[in-house]
Amino acid sequence: MKGYVVLENGEVFEGTLHGSGEDVYGEIVFFTGMTGYQEVLSDPSFKGQMVVFTYPLIGNYGVNEVDFESTKPQVDALIVSEVSNEGFHYESGSSLLTYCDNHSIPVLSGIDTRAIVKRIREHGDMRAVLTTDPTNATFDHYIPLDEQDVVPKVSRSTVQTFGSGEQHIVMVDFGYKKSILESLLHYGCKVTVVPYDTTFEVIEELQPDGVLLSNGPGNPKQLQEQLPTIKNLAETYPTMGICLGHQLLALAFGANTEKLTFGHRGANQPVIDKETNQVYMTSQNHSYVVNEQSLEGTGFEARYVNINDQSIEGLAHTLHPVLTIQFHPEAHPGPSDSEQLFLTFIEMIRNKGREKAYA
Ligand SMILES: NC(=O)CC[C@H](N)C(=O)O
Predict the structure, then answer these.
(1) Is 243 a catalytic residue?
(2) Enclosing H/E stretch for 82
(3) Where is L-glutamine bound in this sequence (predicted)?
(4) Residues 27-61: pLDDT tens digits?
């Protein structure tokens, strides 16, 4: 059937809709990776968003058992130029369209994705609706994603421990990607995953060696209530923050975040480590960034910077063993150039142990 995406600025794009035809609202963003649609659609950080893929052919390697980043699809909709309903890969268990259909995720194909992306780059990430009737589209009742509380929708409600490694990491789940957990397990950690609103006291009882604040969807400023706990954790344990976790640590220490006109979503964002001058190609998925001027007096210094737009990509604290990164060292999709940052975190934990031993 014919389907349309109507942007908040009034523009309409026509394509072929694969789905029930019900109106779907969300924030429209674009992703530039050539592969990785399965990871994107199951990454909880995309909750509330419809994703335009700039790569012109999506679906050609199907959907497999292993590449999901969570247990279900999280995006509101996929918008593509050409969709392949084949699965030309030996691991493929289902076609993309069949998978999306089974989970009621609409796919709009035959769209001039280049034109939409140009519009998003001019006007910014904005509200959009996928519909079969573009004449009456209105956004009056649809609250912008920035003002929605999306983390409670993707965080877990129970505490669960994985692995039995040497370092015990408590990962606070704001909508974590499975690959982060897998990386920590791969590097020999035991990981306890806790709900996003777990108190300091409950985490203390778990006796962590380190704390990891995960990625997650939405505006970090919607999580004001969590900031005192986050600060307390970072002042007590070696702490790593990834993406939303990085933004929350910055806010907790008094810095500010702001929204980029259009986010960084793709697998080839260049980032420089100012301490070593090493450049990483990184996997990214975010709308918000930490404001550099606001770092003054927080104890944080900008250690990682995006080479394309000079935005902050990570922080180091001058007093506490706290490492924060806006990009994704676990990759998936994307290059694993920066995965050794997990080892840096583990080293921070070991050093803290030594400090304690000599204290
Ligand atoms: N991947 C993430 O954790 C994203 C963080 C935040 N939701 C943003 O868009 O900036």
Answers:
(1) yes
(2) strand 82-83
(3) 45, 216, 218, 244, 247, 285, 288
(4) 999 999 999 999 999 999 999 999 999 999 999 99
Series of mean pLDDT values for 10-residue runs along the chain (359 residues)? 96 97 97 97 98 98 97 97 94 96 98 97 95 93 97 98 96 98 98 98 98 98 98 98 98 98 96 97 98 97 97 97 97 93 96 59
Q: Which amino acid is at 55?
A: Y
Q: Percentage helix, strand, coil, to 5, in the chain? A: 30, 35, 40
User: Which of 185, 238, 190 lies closest to 213, judged by CA?
Assistant: 238
CA of 135 to the centre of ligand 1 (A): 32
94 secondary structure, DSSP code:
B
Would residue 11 show up in a list of annotated catalytic residues for this protein?
no
Task: State the pTM of this model.
Answer: 0.97
Amino acid present at 306: N
Output DSSP code: residue 222. G
285: CA distance to ligand 1 center in Å?
6
> Residue with the nearest Cα to atom 3 of ligand 1?
215
Assess whether the previous peptide bond of 333 is cis (omega < 30° from 0). Answer: yes
Pairing of strands 189-195, 126-131: unpaired
What lines the ligand 1 site, CB under 6 Å? 45, 215-218, 243-244, 285-288
Question: Active-site residue 328, yes or no?
Answer: yes
Domains defined along the chain, listed by start? 2-145 (3.50.30.20), 151-358 (3.40.50.880)
* Nearest atom of ligand 1 to the alpha carbon of 257: 10
